[in-house]
Amino acid sequence: MKINDLKVVYDAQAIAARVAEMGQEINRLYAGEELVVVCVLKGAFMFFADLVRHLDMRPELDFVRVASYGSSTSTCGTVSFTKDVEVPLQGKHVLLVEDIVDTGHTVDFLFRQLAARGAKSLRLAALVDKQERRAVPVRVDFAGFALPGGFIVGYGLDYAERYRELPGIYEAVIEPEGA
Ligand code: PRP
């Protein structure tokens, strides 16, 4: 697969405005509560960094990384931790931060794992909720944008580890095989 062109889907300004709104929604829900915000590496790093700067409850921050086995552009059902949470979650509200929910396998795995650590509540903030290939039902509590389909890069999202640094989200126009 080769990327031929990039078409803007959400520019930096649209993302910043939506992330600010999401931050206020999260502030309202967790006002006066203890919250742990967990970033799912690597894709969510930029969204997470921007989102937590809007939060005013002095959250604890942590990071996880998972590996999923399947092709490079899809997640199958086998997911495992390559970096676990370090902050104790027992009795605390936990907000998982994802860049994108696609098949749902990653979030399904993480919800099961984090629930087993005794979290008081578990919610999900995802910048992009992509429904097309959903294989496992996932409740996205705070969704930035809903996208029907397409292959997107930028603002943390990669293709073969490139394009993550782009300030906007782009649809990748793929060169057909053999072209
Ligand atoms: C992407 C994305 C989510 C996951 C969503 O991660 O960041 O974690 O896939 O897909 P799913 O809903 O089908 O499970 P990826 O495996 O590409 O790793 P990365 O975040 O390090 O880029």
From TrEMBL:
Keyword Glycosyltransferase: yes
Alphabetic keyword roster: Cytoplasm, Glycosyltransferase, Magnesium, Metal-binding, Nucleotide-binding, Purine salvage, Transferase
Keyword Chloroplast carried by entry: no
Subcellular location: Cytoplasm
CDD domains: PRTases_typeI
Pathway the protein acts in: Purine metabolism; IMP biosynthesis via salvage pathway; IMP from hypoxanthine: step 1/1
Source taxon at top rank: Bacteria
Residue ranges constituting the Phosphoribosyltransferase domain according to the UniProt record: 9-159
One example GO MF annotation: glycosyltransferase activity
Cofactor(s) this protein requires: Mg(2+)
EC number annotated for this UniProt entry: 2.4.2.8
Catalysed conversion reaction: IMP + diphosphate = hypoxanthine + 5-phospho-alpha-D-ribose 1-diphosphate; GMP + diphosphate = guanine + 5-phospho-alpha-D-ribose 1-diphosphate
Similarity remark: Belongs to the purine/pyrimidine phosphoribosyltransferase family.
NCBIfam families documented for this protein: HGPRTase
Protein name stated in the entry: Hypoxanthine phosphoribosyltransferase
Origin organism lineage: Bacteria, Pseudomonadati, Thermodesulfobacteriota, Desulfovibrionia, Desulfovibrionales
Gene: hpt
